[in-house]
Amino acid sequence: MKLTMKLLVLLFCAQLLASSANAESPREQLKQMVDQLHQNPDDDALREKIIMLARTVKSTIPEVAVRYLVIVD
Asked: How close are the terminal C-alpha atoms of the chain, in Å?
């Protein structure tokens, strides 16, 4: 019985690691969801998911702004 439980836990952990390795970045997920929204503009549930995901994605700073920031410092 204990061996069976250990094997099940090990299998579960292996599956969890495999699924997290295949996970996309939030930015890629956001792009795909926006594409889906363009195809189905009336999907309010998808719109809400996009808003929630967009809140977690950090915006990128343009390279030009970074260069000016370095020059000013």
From this structure: 65
Please check whether residue 38 lies inside any domain of the structure. Answer: yes
Sorted by sequence, the CB contacts under 8 Å of residue 36 that are 6+ apart come out as 43, 46
The structure's pTM equals 0.53
Domain range for 60: 25-73
- DSSP per position, 37-55: HHH-TT-HHHHHHHHHHHH
- The per-residue pLDDT for range 12-71, each reduced to its tens digit, is 777 766 655 556 788 899 999 999 999 999 999 999 999 999 998 887 788 888 888 777
- Residue 29, in any domain of the structure: yes
d(CA 55, CA 36): 18
